[in-house]
Amino acid sequence: MNTSAIIFYAIATLILGAALLAVTTLKIFRSAIWLLFSLVGIAALYFWMQVEFIAAIQIVVYVGGIVVLIIFSIFLTQQSGKEMAKPAASKIIFSALAAILGTAFTFNLINHYGFNTISAQPFNTNVSEIGTQMLSTTSHGFILPFEVVSMLLLAAMVGCIVIAMKPTAANIVHLNKKED
Amino acid sequence: MNEIPLTHILFVSTALFFIGMYGLFTRRNIITMLMSIELMLNSVNINFVAFNKYLFPDKLDGLFFSLFIITIAAAEAAVAIAIIINLYRSHQSIDVDDATEMKF
Predict the structure, then answer these.
(1) What does the radius of gyration of chain A's CA atoms come to, in whole angstroms?
(2) A131 CB near a chain B CB, below 8 Å?
(3) Could you tell me the pLDDT band of residue A169, with boundaries at 50, 70 and 90?
(4) What is the CATH number of the domain that holds A22?
(5) Which residues sit opposite A27 in a β-bridge?
(6) Which of A23, A167, B22, B41 gives a 20 to 30 Å CA spacing to A134?
(7) What would the mean pLDDT of B19-45 be, rounded to a whole number?
């Protein structure tokens, strides 16, 4: 067991422990913080696999964006120190049983499937390589999904503003007129 | 580096996926259910990157898939939080058990 293996198992323990605490703790704010630790652990796993670009994106988007958004919405909608109601015992038992059985089944499948790993070739993940392929229009380029996803982000932004907008008095009058 | 087989990374992502599923089943609060969904999406990303690195090191397709999944997850979280704020305004609560108007 060398250093790399020890680092891998430490990262795996961090990810799974933090995730388990995030789904079981009863205080919602603590749950968000445990989720943060789990996402940082996943970024560390990407660093360990030497895909630095994805690790950076993971930290910027998930840790810097989504978790902050979740914490903001907790502050806007809940008393963050209050404990949530405990789920019913039967629900816990059946959910845990389903999760454990599913895990065991998938572990078994993975264990018996022989993956023929290619480790001779180095894995080239230069940012310039990624950028060239992302914006190339040849048959292995990703320009079309790139453009589609940018439209999706625009639509999501407009949709968020419209959904979360408080209806003002003038707006309500306008809507009522339309109905007449 | 190469002593860790691909299967161990897959074990981690499988366990993470089922932890997320357990959270989705037991929680009744919309924000915590959203957190469980984020965990499941992350486990899928780990799978894509690991398969790309260990089985097809000459291509980059798995990396692009995980990039697009991260983007879509960000859009999904933003829309979900707008919906949560709107729901809180109309119901004063974000428990799924309190929003049953459309339940059949």
Answers:
(1) 23
(2) no
(3) low
(4) 1.20.120.1200
(5) A83
(6) B41
(7) 93
Asked if residue A141 lies in contact with residue A133, where contact means CB atoms within 8 angstroms, the answer is yes
CB contact under 8 A, B82 and A164: yes
The verdict on a CB contact (< 8 Å) between B3 and A4 is yes
Q: Are residues A89 and A166 in the same domain?
A: no
Q: Are residues A131 and A160 in the same domain?
A: yes
Residue type for B72, please? I
Q: pLDDT of A7-59, one tens digit each? A: 999 999 999 999 999 999 999 999 999 999 999 999 999 999 989 999 999 99
> Which residue's structure tokens are 């907008």?
A165
Q: Which amino acid is at A108?
A: N
Q: Give domain B6-95's CATH number out of 1.10.1660.10, 1.10.287.3510, 1.10.340.30, 1.10.10.60.
A: 1.10.287.3510
Both A134 and A117 in one domain: the answer is no
The predicted model scores a pTM of 0.89
Domain coverage including residue A95:
1-123
The distance of Cα A131 from the centroid of its chain, to the nearest Å, equals 23
Lowest mean pLDDT among A59-68, A135-144, B12-21: A135-144
State yes or no: pLDDT of A113 exceeds 90. Answer: no
Q: In this predicted structure, what is the pLDDT of residue A128?
A: 86
Q: Are B16 and B38 in contact (CB under 8 A)?
A: no
Interface size, chain A vs chain B, as Cβ–Cβ contacts under 8 Å: 217
CB proximity A37 to B under 8 Å: no
Domain boundaries, chain B: 6-95
Shared domain check, A91 and A67: yes
Is A49 in CB contact (< 8 Å) with chain B? yes
- Return the SS3 of A154: helix
